[in-house]
Amino acid sequence: EVQLVESGGGLVQPGQSLRLSCTASGFMFGDHDLSWVRQAPGKGPEWVSFIRRKAYGGTTEYAASVRGRFTMSRDDSKSIAYLQMNSLKTEDTAVYYCAKRWGGFGPLFDYWGQGALVSVSS
Amino acid sequence: DIVMTQSPLSLSVTPGQPASISCKSSQSLLHRDGKTYLYWYLQKPGHSPQLLIYEASSRFSGVPDRFSGSGSGTDFTLKISRVEAEDAGVYYCVQGIQLPWTFGPGTKVDI
């Protein structure tokens, strides 16, 4: 059974940092691209970041709103993806989902985690 | 960025009746490879989004055949032939032709 479990969320003050983890099981982690998608309270989803599998360079892409502050990485030996979030802003408050890309092109996510809540407030 | 719009933003449907949701993109989602990169997700209350339709009209594995997607270019439609109680939630279209991938505002469906 495929599972994605996010952890590391919490309450922080503006300007602080947080690192989210996405621990995967039930599939060949290294063979898949992964993304982080967030959802602010009462809002729709917003794509945050994407990391390609190593066979495609392991490169990353980011939404403009987080570029330069957030860094996505992966450890295929542990089947974990990370999202390092620095210089957090109040507008980063959201549930952060890790999502596995089924394949192909675009946001074709077949599995999502249950989400990790990040609250940024003074 | 490509802007996605949806209509209606809310919909109340009687079980067994059909439902239709429209999604429009500010740019064509037709790629030079001939595929159209438009996806539909359903987010049930308290759950993560789940994929229904990919590439505008392909039903994802396990999705009931009462769900269908159609459209091309910039205009798309999700149809539910006969709504069931379990179809309640918020439906989102999202484009995948260029980064950043952008979602529509969502259509809340009450049964």
Percent in strands of chain A: over 45%
Query: What's the helix-strand series of chain A?
Result: EEEEEEEEEEE
Average residue-wise pLDDT of chain B: 96
Shape of chain A: globular
Secondary structural class of chain B: mainly beta
The whole-angstrom Rg of chain B is 13 Å
CA-based shape of chain B:
globular
Most strands sheet of chain A: 7 strands, mixed
The proportion of residues forming helix of chain B, as a percent range, comes to: under 10%
Question: How does this model look, in words?
Answer:
- The complex is a heterodimer of chains A (122) and B (111).
- Chain A is an all-beta fold.
- Chain A contains no helices and 11 strands.
- Chain A has strands spanning 3-7, 10-12, 18-25, 34-39, 45-51, 60-62, 70-75, 80-85, 94-101, 109-112, 116-120.
- In chain A, strand 7 and strand 8 (80-85) form a beta hairpin.
- Chain A starts with a strand and ends with a strand.
- Chain B has no helices and 11 strands.
- By secondary structure, chain B is mainly beta.
- Chain B is globular and about 40 Å long.
- In chain B, the strands form 2 sheets. In chain B, strands 2, 4, 5, 6, 9, 10 and 11 form a 7-stranded mixed beta sheet that branches. Chain B has a 4-stranded antiparallel beta sheet with strand order 1-3-8-7, with no helix packed on it.
- The model of chain B has no long low-confidence stretch (mean pLDDT 96).
- The relative contact order of chain B is 0.34.
- The A-B interface holds A 37, 44-47, 50, 61, 63-64, 97, 102, 104-110, 112-115 and B 31, 35, 37, 39, 41, 43, 48-51, 54-55, 60-61, 90, 92, 94-97, 99-106.
